[in-house]
Amino acid sequence: xxxxxxxxxxxxxxxxxxxxxxxxxxxxxxxxxxxxxxxxxxxxxxxxxxxxxxxxxxxxxxxxxxxxxxxxxxxxxxxxxxxxxxxxxxxxxxxxxxxxxxxxxxxxxxxxxxxxxxxxxxxxxxxxxxxxxxxxxxxxxxxxxxxxxxxxxxxxxxxxxxxxxxxxxxxxxxxxxxxxxxxxxxxxxxxxxxxxxxxxxxxxxxxxxxxxxxxxxxxxxxxxxxxxxxxxxxxxxxxxxxxxxxxxxxxxxxxxxxxxxxxxxxxxxx
Length: 270
Fold this sequence. Notes:
Helix content: 55-70%
Strand order of the largest sheet: 1-2
CATH topology: Four Helix Bundle (Hemerythrin (Met), subunit A)
Shape: globular
CATH class: Mainly Alpha
Largest sheet: 2 strands, antiparallel
Number of domains: 1
CATH superfamily: CDP-alcohol phosphotransferase transmembrane (TM) domain
Distance between the termini: 104 Å
Number of helices: 8
Radius of gyration: 25 Å
CATH architecture: Up-down Bundle
Strand content: under 5%
Structural class: mainly alpha
């Protein structure tokens, strides 16, 4: 009878071949831009605590620029991922939710306490309403990805709201206006920007713009004019553009409701 050698049989294994194991890790390039945007928002908070409000406002605008680049870099390099989308959303919360609220609070809203304890509470409550609205706006946006019309945002986008808030700070600091002098308008601006973020007003997203298509020559001249104005007076032009975009949602909604009523009236008359 031949000897039986157990080791002579091929060993079975349940391990997945190395080529079929899922790759772990994250894409570096787009997440570098997201991290840089988060750092800019964090630095804005530090600068505001130190009383350097102009630098804080500029840091938030730098965060906006970086936030606009990370998604485009991911699409161009085919490095889009669920991790990147979630990380970008959390970064937006820090840079466009917490940072603008704290900058405006340190600059103007904190001085409301000089008018009495109740006004002091209104100051930090307004900053919290803005922060909570930014969080709710981002949560709603994340749940509507792939469902909502990409051409329009529902509610004011958090970067646009941040541009209005810190843009006002930058303009006032440029012209030597302290936050204490405009604390009531700052309170109203904070509440308005916060509530518009959670509103149902539609804002044009500019996502359907195709830069590869031909445009009229006038469009090129308009872009050149904007760049010239930005080079002359950056804070004022950026604030005006952001403010016009903020009020465009309610204005367009009013025009749409008027058109609907006119169409209904025409249908009834026919």
